[in-house]
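Subject: Sanity check before I submit

Could someone independently write out the structure tokens for this chain? I want to compare against mine line by line before I put it in a report. The sequence has 204 residues.
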Amino acid sequence: MSHSRVRKAEVVSEFRRAQLLEAARESFGQLGLAGTTVDDIARRAGVAKGTVYLYFKSKADILEHAMLVDHTRLRDETVPLITGDGPLVDRLTAFLAAGLVFVDQNRGFFEHVHFEMGRDMRKRTLQQLERIFHDQVHAWRTALTRARRRGEVGRDLSPAAAAQTIVALASGLAKQRIRGWLPGPVDRIAATTSATIWRGLAAR
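---
Independent answer below. Compare away.
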């Protein structure tokens, strides 16, 4: 088989997997984990049930892959905001907003899945989230260390402690948003929270 044909087959496979995962995410979000069947996922994706099993072993396998894709996307959409260019306070606001937008885009899925998943799946999910947490903390620690050298934040600031605090607060905002305890426009929430945090970080 030629290289072009192999590549085309890979593209088709990637597209089909993404299509099935999106259909599964919609089903889980609307019907819940227990209420979703492989038939539901196949019907939403517009494929035969047997096609689903060409790509995934079971409903649990689909869920695990969907969670992994989401967590990878969360990391990829937040860490570059921390390490990018521009004033640190603007990066802080963008980071907080990105986390809330991510929650809003996936709220139905998170509401059902996180409360219904079994112990093993919950453990693996928490391990994935822990890795994201550490990646975000590392990025913030690096950014704050550089900002301290530039005099952008207080000289007595501990980058490690501040980084932990920022990421923990962002995680707390996301959890409150999922539960419906933090209504209102994302931009306003992110800007208000960022301004409060910045008062504790900024050089005086």
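---
OP: Matches mine. For the report I'm noting this point. The radius of gyration is 20 Å.
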